[in-house]
Write a structure and sequence with these properties.
The protein contains 15 helices and 13 strands. By secondary structure, the chain is an alpha/beta fold. It has two domains: 244 residues, 3-Layer(aba) Sandwich (Rossmann fold), CATH 3.40.50; 175 residues, 3-Layer(aba) Sandwich (Rossmann fold). β1, α1 and β2 form a beta-alpha-beta unit. The longest helix is centred in the first third of the chain and has 17 residues. It is globular.
């Protein structure tokens, strides 16, 4: 019989791409390396609805037992009502334009609670119970979004009284896009009730940030809960294995997702202004990730703009390492419950300067301030954005290298964050 087994229940697993898969993929990898036995329960690929794919991540799953659950994919039917999105569920935003989009939003908000992947949770409970009994598992972890995954943990806690950790990668009932779904009072009430049950029943709750969020979550329940913070991490071996090259042009690089909820227009205006007033300036804007044609059209206003589309994780990190400035946008709706993305940690690990446009009082901004060469600017601070870019560009022209302060994030390597996770697992 295997020792130190822990069941990890996650919807996102390779070949799924994007940030949602990486947190527990790497936790699983390093749990195994550090003497534990992670067993993964996830959705069958034919039943899954993944916005992006990254088959390179499959290499990180070697030796990890994975069990799959088939489920009817309601999202395919739901997506047929969507228009202008190639029949894909949009990431990070929801369009309200057009009657069909509004109908789809209403259906999503009132018939799929807490989220559009709830059917997978219902289908997974029986298999999760079987795995717990077969492998004599004492502890389980569920991770959301989709927060319907936590309903599996809720059922296992009720049926088997097992030790359970709920990982909140993003907020639940307060997530920024939820207001786009035209939810009726009964749906809002049911959603908050499910969230309350999960928060009250889990033996511990993990988030990627702490300030205000833990107090906010605690205020939703009447019992005392054990809240812990574990930042997303970075793969130190991957970053160290990429050789930095000298660019012919000064490269400002963004990787990830850009939506209308980001303050990207202010950045474009700043760059266009720099290029208009300095025609000979050698600045290239490089974007890799998922953005709509509408947003891509606006970025094409910039001279020397390069769009890579969606790239695998290793290629994204290569672009980060070879950047002269790394660019990040915070959601406009970001507030006290803002989460910290794994990309921010990876950005910091490269040792390259970071320009983040968003809330200067956020926990993400405070994290960036651990490195003196980073800047968080309010979207309205166009001149500050311009001055920052010019200052770093001047150093580049003069071939003055910035002294790396990547040691500021050494404690956020995947191995170190997994050690923090093990402490929580052993504590409950």
């Amino acid at each position: 019989m295997l020792k130190n087994q822990i069941l990890i229940i996650t919807y996102y697993w390779p070949p799924s791409g994007g940030s949602g898969v990486q947190r527990w993929l790497y936790f699983s990898k390093y749990l195994k390396k550090l003497g534990h036995c992670p067993i993964v329960l996830t959705i069958d690929l034919d039943s899954a609805s993944y916005p992006t794919f990254d088959r390179s991540l499959i290499n990180e799953t070697k030796g990890i037992p994975v069990h799959y659950v088939k489920s009817f994919n309601w999202i395919k039917i739901y997506s047929w009502l969507k228009i202008g999105n190639d029949n894909k569920i949009p990431q990070g935003e929801f369009s309200k334009k057009g009657v069909l989009n509004q109908i789809a939003g209403f259906i999503r908000g009132n018939f799929f609670i807490p989220d559009a992947r709830v059917n997978w949770a219902k289908a997974s409970i029986k298999e999760a119970i079987r795995l717990v009994k077969t492998y004599k598992i004492k502890k389980i972890i569920t991770t959301g979004p989709p927060h319907s995954t936590h309903l599996i943990g809720l059922n296992l806690k009720k049926e088997l009284n097992i030790k359970w950790i709920a990982d909140f990668r993003d907020p639940w009932s307060d997530i920024y896009y939820i207001k786009s779904f035209y939810r009726l009072p009964f749906a809002k009430k049911k959603d908050k009730l499910l969230e309350k049950k999960v928060l009250s029943s889990a033996d511990a709750v993990i988030t990627t940030t702490e300030e205000n969020l833990h107090k906010d979550l605690q205020s939703k329940i009447s019992v005392s809960q054990n809240f812990y913070k574990i930042h997303n991490g970075y793969d130190s071996y991957l970053i160290k294995g990429i050789k930095k090259i000298k660019n012919k042009d000064f490269q400002i690089v963004f990787t990830g997702l850009i939506t209308e909820n980001h303050s990207y227009k202010e950045f474009i205006e700043s760059i266009v202004k720099i290029q208009d007033t300095n025609p000979k300036i050698r600045i290239k804007i490089v974007v890799a990730g998922t953005i709509s044609d509408k947003i891509l059209y606006q970025f094409n206003q910039i001279s020397n703009f390069e769009y890579h589309g969606y790239v695998n994780h290793k290629e994204a990190v290569r672009l980060m390492v070879n950047a002269n400035i790394l660019l990040n946008f915070m959601y406009k709706q970001n507030n006290k419950t803002t989460m910290i993305s794994g990309k921010i940690i990876e950005y910091m690990a490269t040792g390259n300067p970071i320009l983040m446009i968003g809330d200067k009082k956020s926990e993400a901004s405070k994290l960036l301030s651990k490195q003196s060469y980073n800047l968080t600017a309010d979207p309205k601070e166009g001149q500050i954005i311009i001055d920052f870019i010019k200052a770093i560009y001047k150093k580049w022209i003069e071939k003055k290298e910035l002294e790396s302060q990547s040691d500021a994030v050494e404690s956020y390597s995947r191995e170190q964050t997994t050690k923090k996770l093990i402490e929580i697992i052993e504590k409950i």
